[in-house]
Amino acid sequence: MCDQTFLVNVFGSCDKCFKQRALRPVFKKSQQLSYCSMCAEIHILKTMYQREEGGILRFIHLKRKRQYSSSWFHLCSHKANVHQVAERVEALGQFVMKTRRTLKGHGNKVLCMDWCKDKRRIVSSSQDGKVIVWDSFTTNKEHAVTMPCTWVMACAYAPSGCAIACGGLDNKCSVYPLTFDKNENMAAKKKSVAMHTNYLSACSFTNSDMQILTASGDGTCALWDVESGQLLQSFHGHGADVLCLDLAPSETGNTFVSGGCDKKAMVWDMRSGQCVQAFETHESDINSVRYYPSGDAFASGSDDATCRLYDLRADREVAIYSKESIIFGASSVDFSLSGRLLFAGYNDYTINVWDVLKGSRVSILFGHENRVSTLRVSPDGTAFCSGSWDHTLRVWA
Amino acid sequence: MAGVRAGAQMPHLSKMERVVVSMQDPDQGVKMRSQRLLITVIPHMVAGSDLVEWLIQKYCISEEEALHLGTLLVQHGYLYPLRDPRCLVLRPDDTPYRFQTPYFWTSTLWPATELDYAIYLAKKNIRKPGALVGHEKEHYGQLHRKINHAWDLVVMQAREQLRAAKQRRKGDRLVMACQEQTYWLVNRPPPGVPSVLEQGPERSSCTAGQAQMSPQGLPSNCSPPGPFQTKNIDFYKREMELCRKALGRARVKSSVCLEAYLKFSSQRELHDPIMSGCLPGNPWVTDDDTYWTLNAPSVAVPTKLRVERWGFSFQELLEDPVGRAHFMAFLGTEFSAENLSFWEACEELRHGGQAQVHAMVDAVYQQFLAPGAARWVNIDSRTMERTLEGLHQPHRYVLDDAQLHIYMLMKKVSVQARRARGVPGPVTAGSAHPLPTGCWHA
Lengths: 397, 442
What we know:
The structure holds 2 protein chains of 2 kinds.
Chain A lengths: L9 E4 L6 E9 L2 E6 H13 L3 H23 L6 H4 L13 E6 L5 E6 L5 E6 L3 E6 L4 E7 L7 E4 L5 E5 L4 E6 L13 E5 L4 E6 L5 E6 L3 E6 L5 E6 L5 E6 L7 E6 L4 E5 L5 E5 L6 E6 L5 E6 L4 E5 L4 E6 L8 E6 L5 E6 L4 E5 L5 E5 L6 E6 L6 E5 L3 E5 L1
Antiparallel strand pairs in A: 1-2, 2-3, 4-31, 5-6, 6-7, 7-8, 9-10, 10-11, 11-12, 13-14, 14-15, 15-16, 17-18, 18-19, 19-20, 21-22, 22-23, 23-24, 25-26, 26-27, 27-28, 29-30, 30-31
Helix pairs in contact in A: 1-2
Chain B lengths: L1 H7 L2 H13 L9 E5 L2 E8 H12 L3 H13 L3 E3 L14 E4 L14 H14 L6 H13 L4 H16 L3 H18 L45 H16 L5 H15 L4 H4 L6 H4 L3 H5 L9 H7 L3 H6 L1 H13 L3 H15 L5 H13 L11 H10 L9 H22 L21
Antiparallel strand pairs in B: 1-2, 2-4, 3-4
Helix pairs in contact in B: 3-4, 5-6, 5-7, 16-17, 17-18, 17-20
C-alpha cells in the first residue's frame, strides 16, 4: 500500500486567480483573504522584495513556474498515476531471494561497487582506501590496490574489463589498468584523470574505456578523456553537492541524469553541457539515480525515505515508493532487467523490493548488519550485489 | 554551525521522534504498566513484546520487520531497557523498556563534549568505585590526562550532581541514571558497536565549496550559508531559463507513458531471470555457470530468448555481438554492408580518445564519404553537405548527423527484413511463433 496523506486546511476558490486549490490565509491591508499557495507566495514576495533586483527576478521566476504548472495541469486533467493504470496488471507472487555469496575482505565500510560486463566480476571500494576486484562467483579476490586517500566513494569497471576507475576524498578520479602479471604493481600504472575541487561522489565510463563521467561534491559533473586527462565538457547547474549519476541507455545515447543535495535531479546533454530537464520533488538529498531499462524514465532514492519514478517524456514524477514504516533514507536503487522490480538499499540495513508498476512493496530483505551503501543489478539480470558499512558485500539471487 | 547541516542530513531522527511520540499516545499508544524493580516501582514501562505488537498493528508489517524497527529505535537511544541498560537491544518478550526523555533525544544533536563525558564518568566512579568497565576506564584515564587543568571542575560538578540527585526518590534516581547511561551509550558506543551517529563525509549545501582537509581527514567547508545566500541573480536567471524551456517543451500525457511501461515490462518479463528464472538454471543458485557459457557474447548458436530480444528493438540487435554479426551478414547479401561499417566507425570516433579524433575523422572521410571512396555511403545531399562543411573543423560529434541518418536507414531495413522472413517483430513477440532453424531451443 502506498500511503500518501495530504494535509489540507481549506479547499476552495482562490481569491486572486479563482482556481480550485488548497487555500492559505493571507493578510492584505489588514483584510484576510484566502489565496492558493502560488498566489500567496507571489504576494509575499511582492511586498517584501519589491525594491531588490533579485527580488523582482524571483517574482518573475515564480510567475513562469506557475504558468508552467498551470499549463501542465491543463494537459493532464486528471493526475494519472502509474498505480491506477497498473490495476490491470497481475500482482506478483511470493518473492524469495537469498544471499548466495558473501564477499568478506574489506577491513572497513564498503562504499561503492560496480559489475564487470562479464557478469561475474565486481570492483568494490571502501573507507580505508582499499579497492578490490573480485570474481564474485568463486569469491576470490583477483586484484587489490590501496588508494592514498580514505572514503573511496566512487568506483567503476571499464566496459572492456581491462581497467577500473575510483576516487573519493582525494578529489580525483584515477584509472588503474588491470594486469595479471604478478610482478607488476597496479599502483605504478595509475593514471590521474579527473580533478575536482571537492570529493568525488560518483564516476562512470561511457560506452568505451576512453571517456569517464564524474560527479563531485563541488556541485559539478564533468566528462574527461582518459588518455590525456583533458576536460571535454563540464556540467554546471546543481546548487549543492552532486551525489550520483547514471548514463542513459538510449539509441542515440547522449544524455545522463544526476542527483544532488539540492534535492534536484537534472538531465544533461553530454554534447552541449546544457541541462535539458530538472525535477525537484524530493524533500531531502538524492543519493542515487538509475534509468529505467527503456531509457524513458529514471528512479531516484533519497534521504527522505522515498524512491520516486520520474518520466522524461511526461516531464514529471509519476510514482512514489514509500511506506510509513520506512523512516531511513534510501542510499541506492536499481531496476531488474525488465524494469518490473526496483531494488532499493536503505540506511536501516535493509533492502526493499518494490513493484514499479503497482507501487507496492514486494519484499524486504534482511541480512546486512549496517547500512546498505551501494546496490547494483548484474548486467544480465541474474542477481544483484549490495555493499554495506558492515564491511561485506552480498550477492542475492 | 556544523549542527545545522548535520540535522538536515539525518531526517530519520525526527521521523523516529514522531514514532516514539505516537507510541506514548494515551489512547492509541503502547500499553503502559508499572514494573517492580528491586524494591521500587517504576511507572510507564512497556514490554518488548507489546512494542513489537504495536508496530505490527500500526504499520501493517511482519514481526521480523517490527522487531528490526524497534531495535533501531532502541539503538538510537529513543527507548532503553531498564534491567540491562548496557545492552541496547530489543527483546520481544516481557523485558521492560522506557521511553527516553526528550532532553536526551538523539535528534537534538547536542555535541556531546569531552567535558560532559568526563563529568559523567567521574559521577559513575564516585558513586561506586570500580563501576567503570573496560573502555570507560580507558576513556577516563585519557580524559584525566587531557583535561587535567580542569579536573577539579569536573570532580566538583560530578559531586554536585550526585548530591542533587540524592534528594530525589529512589525510583527517579534509577530512571535518571538509566537515561543518562543510554545517552552516553549512543554518543560514545563501546568498542565493536558501530556508532549510529556516523554519517560519512560532510555534505554542504553551498555551491563550489573550497575543500579544506580537517585534522580528521574529512573535508570541512567554509561557513554554511543561510537559505537565500547563494540564490543570487544568476541562480534565478538559470531557473527562469529552465522554466521557459519547460513551457516550450512538448509533453506526452502521463497515461500514454505509463502504458509504455506496462508494455515494456510485460514484453521483457520472460527475459528477466529474477522474475522468470532462466534455463538451465540461475548460476548463483545452482553454482553452475552453464547459463553463462550458453549466453557468451560470441557464442556460435544463440539461444531462442536471445534471438527474440533482437526483435524488440534495433538497439538490442546492434548491442549484441552475435546479432550485429548476423545483421552485417544480411547487409552483405544486400550489398550495403558499408552502412554498418560506417556506423561502427562513427561510434568509435564518438567514444574514442581525444588525441585520435583528427586521424579518425580523416580515415572515415577517405573510406566512406569522399567522392569515389571505396565504401561510399549513400546519405541525402543536405546531410552530406552539412557534414562535409563540418569536416573543416573536425571534432568528435562532427559525424553525428550522418550517423543518425544511416542508423535510421538501417533500422527501417531491419524491420522490413524481419517482416519478409516472418520473424516475430515487437508486436507479436508474445506469441509462440516458430523461429528459423539454427537457433538453440531452450
